[in-house]
Design brief:
4 helices, 21 strands
Length: 332
């Protein structure tokens, strides 16, 4: 029996026309293990990214960690089926697939990668070669991908972060030549560091806010390099909510935006936090601000930071903090 009901082609008619409510009810009511099956969001033209066990995206990804399960669906090239007009240069390379996979998983997503068979059922040789290369990478690094979930933050630049129990997987797309410096972790007396593919522990040190990993003399692996780090504490400040003093704001009059900041660590954190704020109107950025805040928060502590704003023109706006948290408000 199927584990996933993956619907498509829903965009012309609503779910009542397709009778997908009845179909989904039948699917769940007849499943041997209802908790182990799922349905996507393509139930009708009104349902995509609104209803379903997971949301589907085509050829697009998320900027930050989503608070819902989602799936990136795309071809290895620009087409879902075999396209004779596409050559090897049009396909994702193995390196691009690996980096895409890591990025998607670090944002609470799943990668559904399509290959296009020819008329005789065979797969293009180049596509097969790319998939086999990705498989070789997964043989070494798959433990960080399967069964893991996003950490507190995605990471930044060429680093992505995943977690499984007490283990943090730090994934870097560039090989650090001598050392890898992380200001997001604090070591404990039980901390261990291992590079996947190398059967020995790596040396490390804690220097203030910096957790420093010393690299092996010889480069190991390719595409993306995964450090398995056990028994550390978070050393990050997390923006977990934004709210306004009033849902309706008057044009030309000051109002206050409140930003909730939390310390998820069992240790006190003393760090600078950069808040990047964007005000959008119809998707266009009309105001942009950046503020660097020096914060001291006790273990598990929270604080609310105030930002004073003025919007001169009436309309419906969206405020976005650090590309993640957003809130819509009206200016009259």
């Amino acid at each position: 029996k199927p584990d996933i009901l993956w619907l498509d082609g829903e965009w012309d008619y609503p779910s009542d026309f397709w009778k997908t409510k009845e179909l989904v009810a039948w699917f769940y009511n007849n499943a041997e293990s209802p908790n182990e099956i799922c349905v996507n969001d393509r139930l009708g033209k009104e349902t995509r990214k609104k209803y379903g066990d997971f949301f589907t995206f085509e050829y697009e990804t998320m900027d930050e960690i989503a608070d819902f399960k989602w799936e990136l669906c795309r071809g290895i090239g620009y087409s879902f089926g075999y396209n004779r007009a596409e050559g090897p240069e049009d396909y994702l390379t193995a390196e691009e697939i690996v980096k895409l996979l890591v990025d998607v998983v670090s944002k609470n997503g799943n990668l559904l990668l399509n290959v296009g068979p020819k008329a005789d059922g065979s797969l293009p040789e180049t596509q097969v070669e790319r998939l086999l290369e990705v498989g070789e990478w997964l043989k070494i690094n798959g433990e960080a991908i399967y069964g893991s979930h996003p950490w507190l933050i995605v990471g930044e630049d060429d680093i992505r972060l995943l977690q499984k129990d007490n283990t943090i997987y730090v994934i870097t797309f560039k090989w650090p030549e001598k050392e890898l410096v992380l200001d997001i972790l604090r070591a404990s007396n039980k901390t261990k560091v291992r590079l996947l593919g190398l059967n020995e522990d790596l040396k490390w040190t804690q220097d203030g806010n910096n957790f420093i990993i010393f690299m092996p003399k010889q480069k190991i692996g390719k595409y993306a390099y995964i450090f398995e780090i056990e028994n550390t504490y978070p050393n990050v400040l997390v923006v977990n909510d934004i709210f306004l003093n009033n849902d309706v704001i008057k044009a030309g009059e000051p109002f206050t935006l409140f930003v909730s900041i939390a310390n998820p660590s069992p240790l006190e954190i003393r760090k600078n936090l950069t808040l990047e704020l964007e005000i959008k109107w119809r998707g266009l950025v009309v105001k942009k601000m950046e503020e660097n805040i020096k914060i001291i928060l006790p273990a598990g502590g929270k604080l609310v930071h105030k930002v004073d704003l003025v919007i001169d023109e009436p309309g419906t706006y969206e405020v976005v903090i650090n590309s993640k948290f957003s809130r819509e408000f009206k200016v009259t």
